[in-house]
């Protein structure tokens, strides 16, 4: 059985005052029936981890692939763990675009995350141009092959399918399109890592998940939860998404 996961990516949003949203979320879900994860900016991670306690897991949004060293401005997986993180989002399309991160970069970072005992949430997804003019599954297959290290297990890997054109746009793929990609990711994981790991690894959908569309998305096969951006910033928005996942 795959335990469902409601994950929030705060991106470059959130100051100390925003931690009241975490307290509110915890109060609304004192014993959630699904895993709940929030990934704040690194500046908030330690404080958020204290507020979140054992109820809500916390994670980073990126890390360096080295343990430490002369890398000004960078943060290692061990540092994120030290600040309370259990997960690290890697290869988000915004990092692939803003920082030219390649599949190889993501794979090296994922190795570091797994070696530090953390869970890598590896993001894949096609652009609108790729969706319209290329073979989406081929694009996703290439990203999976290049970004996921051989060290992956069902315990240290979560895959997030985030079509770039659905992020922050209010547009989502059709449910058939989501199902097609999630089934493909499941098959790909089973072929590479064997049925045990393949069937047990969680696959999240991300891109404009809202309280209003969460229930229908969570009913799609092989959708084990969501990676939520904008709607994870406020407890009033994220809470009904958690509830929808609990009821899925
Ligand atoms: P939105 O939910 O704001 O579309 O963002 C999705 C996302 O990129 C999560 O990582």
How would you concisely characterize the structure shown here?
This protein has helices at 19-28, 42-52, 77-82, 93-98, 103-115, 128-133, 136-147, 175-193, 195-200, 211-218, 235-247; strands at 5-9, 35-39, 57-60, 87-90, 119-124, 157-161, 202-206, 225-228.
Number of domains: 1
Shape: globular
Q: Considering DSSP H and I runs of 4 or more, what fraction of the residues is helical? A: 40-55%
Number of helices: 11
Ends apart, CA distance between termini: 14 Å
The level 1 CATH classification is Alpha Beta
Bound molecules: 1,3-dihydroxyacetonephosphate
The CATH homologous superfamily is called Aldolase class I
- Total strands: 8
Q: Which residues form runs of ≥5 with pLDDT under 50?
A: none
In CATH, the topology is named: TIM Barrel
Structural class: alpha/beta
The CATH architecture classification is Alpha-Beta Barrel
Biggest beta sheet attributes? 8 strands, parallel, barrel
Query: How much is the radius of gyration in Å?
Result: 17 Å
């Amino acid at each position: 059985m795959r335990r469902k996961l409601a994950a929030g990516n705060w991106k470059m949003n959130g100051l100390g005052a925003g931690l009241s949203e975490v307290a509110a979320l915890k109060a609304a879900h004192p014993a959630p029936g699904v895993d709940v994860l929030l990934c704040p900016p690194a500046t908030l991670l330690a404080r958020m981890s204290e507020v979140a306690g054992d109820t809500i897991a916390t994670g980073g949004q990126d890390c360096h692939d080295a343990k430490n060293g002369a890398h000004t401005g960078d943060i290692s997986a061990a540092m994120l763990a030290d600040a309370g993180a259990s997960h690290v989002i890697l290869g988000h399309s915004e990092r692939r675009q803003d920082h030219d991160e390649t599949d190889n970069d993501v794979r090296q970072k994922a190795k570091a995350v797994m070696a530090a005992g953390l869970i890598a949430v590896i993001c894949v997804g096609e652009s609108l141009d790729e969706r319209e003019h290329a073979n989406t599954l081929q694009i996703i297959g290439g990203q999976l092959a290049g970004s996921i290290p051989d060290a992956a297990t069902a315990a240290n890997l979560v895959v997030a399918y985030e079509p770039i054109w659905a992020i922050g746009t209010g547009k989502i793929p059709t449910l058939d399109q989501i199902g097609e990609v999630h089934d493909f990711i499941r098959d790909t994981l089973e072929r590479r890592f064997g049925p045990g790991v393949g069937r047990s690894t969680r696959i999240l959908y991300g891109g404009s998940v809202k309280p209003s569309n969460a229930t229908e998305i969570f009913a799609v096969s092989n959708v084990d939860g969501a990676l939520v951006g904008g709607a994870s910033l406020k407890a009033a928005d994220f809470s009904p998404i958690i509830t929808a996942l609990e009821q899925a």
